[in-house]
Amino acid sequence: MGIRYWIFNITKGEMNMKAFIIVGAINAFLAVALGAFGAHGLKDRLDAHYLEIWKTGVTYQMFHALGILIVAMLLSKVASSSLFTWSGWLMLAGIILFSGSLYVLSLTKIGILGAITPLGGVCFLAAWVLIVLGAMKHL
């Protein structure tokens, strides 16, 4: 099964499912790596307050990496659900905005970056609501 098969014989739903498996796994990997980096590489460089902020970013990234994998599994059952698809993309946006802003805040101590974090939180909340709505509609 070469690239030609993948390009021409894959449905949009299967493409979204594979994309979310890859995106979810990459984010889970990054959460583990960033968690280890925080625990070992930053413990002597950041004070406890900023290390705790870093840990919050890692925790939310891992939970939502798993959420993206859940979305992939839901798309394996209901490939054409835009509710599940939007949920996965919102979780990714949430990871970037929420966890990303916390990582940068921890390293730079630029407080205004904390204003970005709630936008990521809203993305997370919307993503979970879409899963509920998708389950009510499709499952």
Give the topology, please.
Layout: H1 3-9, H2 12-41, H3 48-77, H4 82-108, H5 117-138
Helix pairs in contact: 2-3, 2-4, 3-4, 4-5
In short:
With 139 residues, the chain is an all-alpha fold. It has helices at 3-9, 12-41, 48-77, 82-108, 117-138. The chain contains 5 helices and no strands.
- Please provide the count of β strands: 0
Helix/strand order: HHHHH
Tell me the number of structural domains. Answer: 1
Proportion of helical residues: over 70%
What's the mean pLDDT score? Answer: 92
Strand content: under 5%
Coarse morphology: elongated
Low-pLDDT runs of 5+ residues are 4-8
Largest sheet data: none
Tally of helical runs = 5
- Derived structural class: mainly alpha
Tell me what the structure shows.
With 139 residues, the chain is an all-alpha fold. The chain has one domain. Helices cover 83% and strands 0% of the residues. α3 (48-77) packs antiparallel against α4 (82-108) and α4 runs antiparallel to α5 (117-138). The radius of gyration is 17 Å and the shape is elongated. The relative contact order is 0.14. Mean pLDDT is 92; it is low at 4-8.
Q: Which labels suit this protein?
A:
139 residues; elongated; mainly alpha; 83% helix
